[in-house]
Design a protein that fits this description.
The structure is a homotetramer. With about 180 residues, the first copy, chain A, is an alpha/beta fold. Chain A is built from seven helices and seven strands, in the order βαβαββαβαβααβα.
Chain lengths: ~180, ~180, ~180, ~180
């Protein structure tokens, strides 16, 4: 069955975006990339730092409200619809709800052929990379490193603690059918 | 009939993005924003400056190839699917094909209630704003100012030549039902 | 006397950056651009949202602390030194201290030939543009619109309320000797 | 003698910026960061892709012209002047001229106490990271990996091939007196 979507899940600063750009470079066909960052960019500015929208506390704890969840559900269905309409899609997400977040995708996906990829990175290393990026609230990386993988089932997992993005992308690409 | 999508069409540097952000601020419900810029960001880097993808010549002339068109069609269907799934969506696009570009959206929209908005700006003024942005290929604004409106039918038009983004957004918001 | 520096002062969202990019485009010689935004980018991330550094309150009120002031003074001297060393420099700044901020520059400038430019924009219009940018804390534009000009002496003033950036840049360029 | 400046030299995608942000985080005093990227941002847009300014060929080869060199020299003197005026400064640069580029800094520095740091990264790894960034012309990393270090003398060298930015920053910070 031809892979129509690749869904990467990993904590903040685990290296998902770098892997996505490498996947887009190494896969022979053109793949569109979407993810939690582009979804947040699409939201009204006033939904950021709001209870109904997205709130990132000073310690890096992320909470999302009812408006966020409602828009996210519609967004998820739309991304899957792009794949159904023929586009190859790679998504990077942060499953704050673990298995529940995966089920949200599964419900929208129906029988669509997806490659599920876990992107691991040791919390301490991810925290260091968070500092080196300079644009993230410190603490998110450590809080999310294990949390986002709880109960999630993958086709394969990559670990960026000691592997480069390109190397991880090549491993993933070899599983795309 | 409740407006489910707002589609803004206008040339490069006509002021669409500023209007979109103001719409997201003034409309009471949360609206998600997508557009040609976020679509291009989702493409592989290798599709930019490529014949099959997107090519922007030194004089600002834009050409798009077969891969671009195929992904754009799937993207269009996905954006409409988000609206069908309950999200309010505002899109800003550049109808390089004029009426043909509008038909691409109409085909995907089916009977969905859309507000069509033309964003006009005199070519000379748009060219000046292109310079003031500093990140666009000079010439795009002038080339696209009239071209993108050819044969396109709107519910309303705004003109940013002498009106502020916020003023245009308020005019548009008054037409959202 | 040949103009070696142009210093633009205006409130947040008054249109300084757009004018700077237009000045760089219309002036025949190459001019380097620096300003309060690039200075803040050069600061450690931990100095943002800190008492000793830079703090922007939820209502847009900006306060700067001792570390900010000390680095700013050294930065000012360095920018002037670039001009003394032969570079043409355009600076955009926000004189939160009004006349006192201008004196900080004058002290560093010694006898260097500077063109002082006030960039005005009516508070209500600047506030609208702040919304259309989407990346600024709402309220800064209104709070700073008049404040930053108190007691400051200019060679010329431009007003972006009804004039385009390029038009303002041409007016300024005509005063460069 | 108290270190007043840290100058990092390394090829494109060798990891300089990440180290700089980590240095700003781990060093107890506030350090301002400048570098070749912020210098290029300060140049007029028209100097990019120009013979007199900066030209990056499709294969990643970088050439700089007379206007670039003249402004760079003045910029260098200004950065050193900031340090003389009391600011702690960390610079990341790409010594396209190897030892000659270092001499440009030394001439401006006079006797100022500088820590010279070489940032190494194996060409193949740097090339992979160039792909994962997605915003660089492919080829720069490989072309510059060794070139920029030719004849340059360092106080210490770090290698990001197998070490994290934060680890490298801590090594450097331990040499700051």
């Amino acid at each position: 069955m031809t892979t129509r979507m690749i869904i990467l899940n990993g904590g903040s600063s685990s290296g998902k975006s770098g892997i996505v750009r490498c996947l887009q470079a190494v896969l022979p066909d053109p793949w569109l990339a979407f993810g939690v960052d582009s979804f947040v960019d699409a939201m009204p500015a006033k939904m950021q730092a709001s209870e109904a929208g997205l709130d990132i506390a000073a310690d890096g704890r992320v909470s999302v409200g009812a408006d966020f969840r409602a828009l996210e559900e519609a967004w998820t269905e739309g991304i899957v619809a792009m794949a159904r309409a023929g586009a190859r899609i790679v998504v990077d997400d942060v499953f704050l709800g673990g298995a529940v977040s995966q089920q949200r995708w599964q419900k929208a996906l129906g029988g669509l052929a997806v490659l599920w990829v876990g992107v691991r990175c040791e919390g301490e290393v991810a925290s260091g990379r968070e500092i080196s990026r300079g644009d993230r609230v410190p603490g998110m990386a450590a809080l999310q490193a294990d949390l986002v993988h709880q109960g999630v089932i993958y086709d394969l997992e990559v670990d960026t603690t000691h592997a480069e993005s390109l190397e991880c992308a090549r491993t993933i690409a070899a599983h795309v059918s």
